[in-house]
Amino acid sequence: MLSFGVIGLAGGAASLAYAPSVVESQMNKIAPHASFKTSERAQTLHRTLNLADLHSDTLLWNRDILARSDRGHVDVPRLQEGRFALQVFSAVTKAPRNLNYDRNPSDSDQITLLVQVQLWPSRTWDSLLERALYQSEKLHHAAKKRPKDLMVIRTRKDLEILMAARARGETMVGGLLATEGAHPLEGKLDNLARLRQAGYRMIGLQHFFDNEVGGSLHGMSKGGLTAFGRQVVGEIERTNMIVDLAHSSPAVVDDVLAMATRPMVVSHTGVRGACDSPRNLSDAQMRSIAAKGGLIGIGYWEGAVCDITPKGVAKSIRYAADLVGVDHVALGSDYDGSTTVMFDASESVALIDALIQAGFTDEDIAKIGGGNQIRLLMDLLPPG
């Protein structure tokens, strides 16, 4: 839930220097908690896992992802400590004022001010496409600087290299680029090729507002795919990218399911059967997505799971797995998405312990934790 109106950003150079860190500290919180006490079984299993998370908004913020930070939820050192093999980094490019889960117009944008205060290049100030391209540049620059720690995943071959390195005991993390909504296309199908060239491999169709592609779950129209949206979905599939239905209206979800020839993901969500929130998927939607071979990423924030403790997150994962099967459930934290969570990437063993307590086997946990995500990407990414 992105909302930056909580802080005034005016007041001269000193304010501009400190405002981004102050804003993020207020937006990306970790709820106070004592150190998690986890079982020996959880700790032993955790050391064998290659975890994968389907959604974080880390690239939006002015932090060096190669350095461990006391702000936010994700950086490479914390991913390594948490046994993550893969993190999907989603590019946030627009968010209307006064965000809510019910109805948001598309005629305002909070991200512009954040972009300016963070001193992003001027080309990003009035272009959603350029904002996405810049976030790609940030990830690629970090990977070039520390190639043994971070690798941008564009192809199946890249993923094979990453997993081989992990099998040798290396702690390299793969970063896969996604969009938080398809509005960076700016209504032009040709811009999908520009995003693909920049390394984007997962395309979210909507965010908190309707766009040229179709209706948002939180928009005004609640409509389905537009004619342009149908073109976009077809081109995403044709070019071996992945459709992400997070934030899409039920009508868009239905339209995509009707035309899709490949599995899709819902990168970060909750499930209404475990947490009756308007943000979350119905049982019928979950079954339809699973029937197409898709993955449902369970988030960690209150609007997704109601209870943000590891036990609460595990409860939603348990409900989803019981409904659609273990092979269709994944982790989708929404880390660094202006969310408050109970544990950051480095504390993932706490969730593993909660999943054990929820009755999952070690094999189940390996699948949900990362195996399903890696399998889907191996199937859907271009060969390279």
Per DSSP E runs of 2 or more residues, the count of β-strands stands at: 11
Named CATH architecture: Alpha-Beta Barrel
Rg estimate, integer Å: 19 Å
Distance between the termini: 35 Å
Helix content: 25-40%
Number of helices, where a helix is a run of at least 4 consecutive DSSP H or I residues: 14
Indicate the low-confidence ranges by residue numbers.
3-14
Q: Please report the first level of CATH classification, the CATH class.
A: Alpha Beta
The count of domains is 1
Description:
The protein has 14 helices and eleven strands. Mean pLDDT is 95; it is low at 3-14. Strand 6, helix 8 (227-238) and strand 7 (242-244) form a beta-alpha-beta unit. Helix 2 packs across helix 13 (348-357) and helix 12 (310-324) crosses helix 13 (348-357). It has a single domain (37-380), classed as TIM Barrel (Alpha-Beta Barrel). The chain is an alpha/beta fold. Strands 2, 3, 4, 5, 6 and 7 form a six-stranded parallel sheet that branches. It has a three-stranded parallel sheet with strand order 8-9-10. The protein starts with 12 loop residues before the first helix and ends with a helix. It has helices at 13-27, 40-46, 76-81, 111-117, 128-145, 156-167, 190-197, 227-238, 250-259, 283-291, 302-305, 310-324, 348-357, 362-380; strands spanning 29-30, 51-56, 84-91, 150-152, 173-179, 200-204, 242-244, 265-269, 295-298, 329-331, 340-341.
